[in-house]
Design brief:
435 residues; Rossmann fold; seven-stranded parallel β-sheet; 17 helices
Length: 435
């Protein structure tokens, strides 16, 4: 029996693995191609639109991905508005469009759903469908749904069209606005509902969001497809136990968005500084593009002076190490005893909380950071109902290193048993076979 052929459409360069969403996409590809599924395993080709970096093609091949790169210098619908692209790949594309006027595009408005439509991409996608002859199409986010307009009636009736939602975007937008931030897309529940109804199936990242998506699109099959850590747990040995004679090292890794920036600033103000004042034997490692956010952030309720002041404070603190962007998560987790996730808003599964487990690193997290994490992780994730509760939790860990080691051992076991391909993608693989 031949493998089910999946054509995945995206404008996100997920092979870079710089954000939780990118990691989810990469693991999804690996997961449904897993030979452990036997004759149910899929073959995935990716249709990518956007400007690629000089290393993207090589990186994709290194990871064993089949990516068809498409780009254009034609301006997409709505780009003349002062818009904010949601992922780095499209940010680069807008910057290239405006190159010669300004190296950095200043943006202060979220995008509308129509802003994502690239007219030239519809015909290119149709050509890709003709060549690859997929059994199913998976669009990453509802923003890619316009590509289905290029399919013929015959193709549309014979190809299962699926959207990987990642979040209930309209709910996520509302949460961001409640905290005084703009979201990357301004989408209403009605608009999201219309977009979802174009698809035969929608993938919810957590069971909590499944009823909401089903209500938005009653005739669309809604499946739960969470996240797998198999690409990590299969290939890498658990990181060795850190010595007890050093300071307890807590770590935060995140991309540059408002939710992460808000979380880090509050953590420094309300947890890190009090821990320092109390003389806790703790050091702090920060990694990811969140470091750039602190240096260059110019909008939201936090002023540029405030974020720059915090950057100076952290960069001059002898107990803080700022790694910036890193080549591999191992470069971060090898230095960390306990990961923190003090996020206060945002929907969906918290990928960074899951990822830490795969490296054998337990977490101290906010209630939001533990959202939708299964109960099996209780021995490896300490949940604090308020951010200030993190102070005694971390202080206690700095004094009881044996307890930290017990949590580390639990973390790896949980990652292997709970976040594996069979659990994460089994429902999707079965649905593709039935259809």
């Amino acid at each position: 029996m031949s493998r089910t052929r999946i054509l995945m459409a995206t404008d996100v360069p997920f092979w870079r693995c710089e954000t939780g969403a990118q990691q989810r996409m990469l693991h999804l590809v690996y997961g449904i191609e897993d030979e452990a599924f036997g004759d149910r395993a899929c073959k995935v080709q990716t249709f990518f639109i956007g400007v690629q970096s000089p290393t993207d093609e090589a990186k994709a091949k290194e990871l064993g991905l089949d990516v068809q790169f498409y780009s254009s210098d034609r301006i997409p619908d709505g780009v003349r508005k002062r818009i904010k692209w949601h992922m780095e790949g499209t940010i680069h594309l807008v910057r290239q469009t405006f190159r010669g006027r300004d190296d950095v595009v200043k943006v202060d408005q979220p995008m509308q759903l129509s802003d994502f439509a690239w007219p030239w991409a519809v015909s290119s996608f149709a050509e890709c469908v003709d060549a690859f002859k997929p059994d199913a199409i998976v669009c990453q986010y509802v923003t890619m749904g316009y590509l289905l307009d290029g399919l013929s009636d015959t193709q549309r009736s014979s190809i299962n069209c699926v959207v990987d939602t990642h979040d209930v975007l309209s709910s996520r937008r509302e949460q961001f606005e409640q905290f005084g931030f703009s979201h990357w897309i301004n989408i209403s529940p009605e608009q999201e509902s219309d977009a979802l109804r174009k698809f035969d199936a929608a993938l919810a990242i957590i069971d909590h969001e499944r009823p909401t998506l089903q209500a938005m699109a009653p005739k669309t099959n809604v499946l739960t497809v969470s996240h797998s850590l198999d690409p990590i747990t299969r290939k890498r040995e658990a990181i060795s136990r850190p010595p007890n004679d050093r300071l307890l090292t807590i770590g935060y890794i995140g991309s540059s968005n408002h939710s992460n920036g808000h979380a880090l600033i509050k953590f420094v103000r309300h947890v890190w500084n009090p821990l320092q004042e109390q003389g806790a034997d703790v050091q702090f490692v920060i990694a990811g593009s969140i470091c750039d956010w602190l240096m260059f952030h110019e909008e939201s309720r936090f002023s540029s002076d405030e974020s720059m002041s915090l950057w100076i404070e952290l960069s001059t603190d002898p107990n803080v190490k700022l790694l910036g962007k890193i080549e591999s998560p191992e470069d971060f987790y090898a230095q960390v005893d306990v990961a923190i996730n003090p996020v206060e808003f945002g929907t969906g599964l918290k990928i960074k909380t899951c990822e830490a487990l795969a490296y054998g690193v337990p977490s101290v997290t906010s209630a939001c950071g533990s959202h939708a994490i299964p109960p099996e992780v209780a021995d490896a994730v300490l949940v604090c109902e308020s951010i200030k509760q993190m102070i005694p939790a971390i202080f206690s860990m700095s004094l009881d290193r044996e307890q930290v080691q017990i949590m580390r051992e639990s973390a790896r076991e949980v990652a292997e048993n709970v976040f594996n391909n069979q659990v994460a993608y089994g429902e999707l693989v079965d649905w593709l076979q039935r259809e």
